[in-house]
Amino acid sequence: MDCIINRRAQFSASHRYWLPELDEAENLRRFGAGSRFPGHGHNYVLYVTLGGQLNHYGMVENLSIVKRVIQREIIDQLDYGYLNQVWPEFQQTLPTTENIARVIWQRLAPLLSLVNIQLFEHPELWADYQGNAMEATLTVKTHFSAAHRLALNELSYEENCEIYGKCARPHGHGHNYHLEISVTGEIDSRTGMLVDLGELQQVIKDYIVEPFDHTFLNKDIAYFAQVVPTAENIAVYIAQTLQGPIAAIGAELDKVKLIESPNNSCEILCRKPSLISRDTQELAMTKG
């Protein structure tokens, strides 16, 4: 039986998004504030995921050894460093979050049984890399506040209360929703980016955050006039809405995670079309 284990580590480092073959105006257009001299820094958080069979000692790998390997090969070299100059890989391909994760994998793979490298640039931006050539996944986290009521139009108030409990009360209730959008793509061999981060954030803002924020979903979003705005159905709608615009900027929508409260969340795996292409009436009945 396979087992997955994780080791967490941290380092602080600076970097700059700047290509010497481009002039200042073009670097600014491509990378925005990230192109400013001499650079900017982050407190990175790294999760190294390992997998395999348990050995005689009840371990996938000895965590004391894992800790020393990560410290020697990654943390000691990157901590308080200027990433563009620390490793030669970052002179060819810029040290974006997704590319740092890729290079960390390359350096650890000969030494550890890796399953995933996850690197947080900050709590609202992180990348995952699983050893698939130049393919990586980038996740952006954002939020919006909205109200909703859970009820099927064809049922009585009493019947809706049997299904949805307090959530069926006629004036609804609200949440501070947290939304994680994960996209997958090929890391550009020069810029280090799988997608223009500014464009991705703008798409999420234009198509989801601005239309949803401070609304009553049942009344203000036409889709939810007939479809019950459960967390699941909201996530399905977000996935349906974002697939095209994200494809248009050169990435593929990988996952939508909607966190309704600290106790409730749901995920839509967007590479499985059956999860986002069901008839909306069926979704209203089965996912409510």
Shape: globular
Biggest β-sheet strands, sense, barrel = 10 strands, mixed
Strand content: 25-35%
Strand segment tally: 10
Q: Kindly name the structural category.
A: alpha+beta
Count, helices: 10
Computed Rg: 22 Å
Segments where pLDDT lies below 50 for 5+ residues? 278-288
* Order of secondary-structure elements: EHEHEHHHEEEHEHEHHEEH
Query: What's the overall average pLDDT, rounded?
Result: 93
The termini sit apart by 36 Å
Helix percentage: 25-40%
Tags for this entry?
288 residues; alpha+beta; ten-stranded mixed sheet; 10 strands; 31% strand
Question: Could you outline the blueprint of secondary structure elements for this entry?
Answer:
Elements: E1 2-15, H1 24-31, E2 40-53, H2 63-78, E3 81-82, H3 83-86, H4 89-92, H5 97-108, E4 114-122, E5 125-129, E6 135-148, H6 157-164, E7 173-186, H7 197-212, E8 215-216, H8 217-220, H9 231-248, E9 252-261, E10 264-269, H10 280-286
Parallel strand pairs: 1-3, 6-8
Antiparallel strand pairs: 1-2, 2-4, 4-5, 5-6, 6-7, 7-9, 9-10
Helix pairs in contact: 7-9
